[in-house]
Each structure stands twice: as C-alpha cells, then as structure tokens.
Amino acid sequence: MLESNATRCSGAAAARKLVLRSSVVQSHDTSALVRVATYNIHKCRGLDRLIRPDRIVEVLQQIDADIIALQEVLSLEADQPEKDQFRYIAKGLGYHAAFGENRRLKNARYGNVVLSRFPIHVERNYDITKPGREPRGCLRADVRINGVELHVFNVHFGTAFREHRQQARRLFEEQIVNHEELRGTRIVLGDFNEWLRGDVSRTLKAHLDHADIRHHLKRSRSYPGVFPLLQLDHIFHDSALKLQRLRLHRGRPPLIASDHLPLIADFAIPAALDREPPQANEAVKIVER
C-alpha cells in the first residue's frame, strides 16, 4: 500500500470533497455522492505509441473520481520516476494506492491498481489465472466512506471466451466477492474482456446490479478509444448503492492517452449501510498474491 506525504494531508480535503458532492443528492439527506471510475491505461502507451504517464494523470485529474480502478499498470523501480507508473500516478494525484501484481513484464511489476481519495485499510490480490493463459488477478481494496465500508474489486479478465467465463464464476465459487467476512457494500469493476454480452455479464448480474451504460448513453462503447466498437469496461455493485450518473470520459486527452475510455459512475451511499454477510458455503481455498 502506498501513502505519500500528500495523501497523509488529504483526509480533510477528501471530506470536504465528499460534502460538496453530497450537496447535490436530493433524495437521501444522509447520503454521500461518491464517484468511481475504471480505466485500462494500456501501460500508459497512447495512440501515438508514446509512453506518457503524465497524460494519464491529466485524464484522472479531469475525472476527479474518489476511487479509481486501473488496469495494465507497469511498476519499474528506476532513476526516471515515470517508469514506476504506480507511484508516479498515485503521487501525481496525491491519492492512497494499492497495487495488485499479476506477473513480471520486462523486469517490472505488472497488474491492477486501486487509487482512493480515502485511506485504504485492507488490500488483497487474488489469483484468478486460468492454467496455460496469461496471469490475471482481482485486486480488493477496502475504504470507509460516510461511515460505510466499501469493498472495491478491480478485475482484468482474460481475452479467451472460456477463460473470462471461468474467471467470472471463480469470483463467487472461490468466495472472493461473496466471502463471509465482507460486511460492507461491494463494487466490482474493471476490464472484463467480454466482447459480446454472455456468461460473464449473466454471472455478475446474478449477484450484483449492473451499471449498464447502454441505458444512459447512445454511444456506450469504450474500446478502442479513438473509434469504440466494444464495451469491455463495466461496473457492478450492491443494490445499496444508488446510481446517480454514468458516463464515458471523452475528449482529446483520453482519446490519445490510452486505447480505452474511462468509465465513470456517481453513486449515492446512504450512511451506515453495512449489509448482512452472505451465507457461508463450504471452505474453498483462495489463492492470493
């Protein structure tokens, strides 16, 4: 878990931001409006093939989300700070950050990242790799907002049909997303690599609500960013979270910075909404990194 000097001083600022967002929620007097986003940053390689993590920071500053799930992040300790994309981006935003390493790539750590305006007090990385395929993971990060425990699961599924179908089932069969210790509210988001709606979407929707962008925008596809043909990025959530707004972040900076467009959701979180834990099933081994 990464905590910079900026994040240590950001608690009051985060609370002020939460109050400002909450003021626009009309239906719940005690609600906080929390913005979450998922963004596959493609190792910070842009449309022009240049690796520019500063452009990713610029896009994220424009989004101004409270919680951000990033996929395809490289972290290499080197003399140039920008080569450690994990720390460079977290420091650029002044956010708390958790890194879920899924494999080594050119001597660098490679995987998913959760960034949070609020402190991350639990982080766990689950191995959901299908044997014989590229290593994949599900990164969990827990934060507390408005008195509510929020369990954030950042996933990046494989590209093969049987692979991502199996990975979706494993989230529940191996009690990753439905573990009995989870007493808070859950968000599962990321790059699901499902080209057409199928078993992955059905599996997640059997347990969680889907923030379906097709119901909010005429142009709902997020990949590839410059000419979107597919909707690979999704957000699923517990029904306790009330979706207020869902959108794709468009414009010149996000079109150039990566091959995906960021997906952004605003949720109203009523205070003290901790849910009952799911029914415990037989113990299943959970492999973590």
Distance between the termini: 13 Å
Average pLDDT value? 85
DSSP summary: helix tally: 7
Q: What's the CATH topology name?
A: Deoxyribonuclease I, Chain A
Major beta sheet, strand line-up: 3-4-2-1-12-11
Helicity, as a percent range: 10-25%
Main sheet: strands, sense, barrel: 6 strands, mixed
| CATH class placement | Alpha Beta
| CATH-level-2 architecture | 4-Layer Sandwich
Supply the number of structural domains: 1
Spell out the CATH superfamily.
Answer: Endonuclease/exonuclease/phosphatase
Strand content: 25-35%
- Quaternary: single chain
Order of SSEs: HHEHEHEEEEEHEHEEEHE
Uncertain stretches of 5 or more adjacent residues: 225-229, 276-289
Q: Rg from C-alpha positions?
A: 18 Å
- The number of strands is 12
Please state the overall shape, judged from the principal axes of the Cα atoms. globular
Based on helices, strands and strand pairing, what is the structural class? alpha+beta
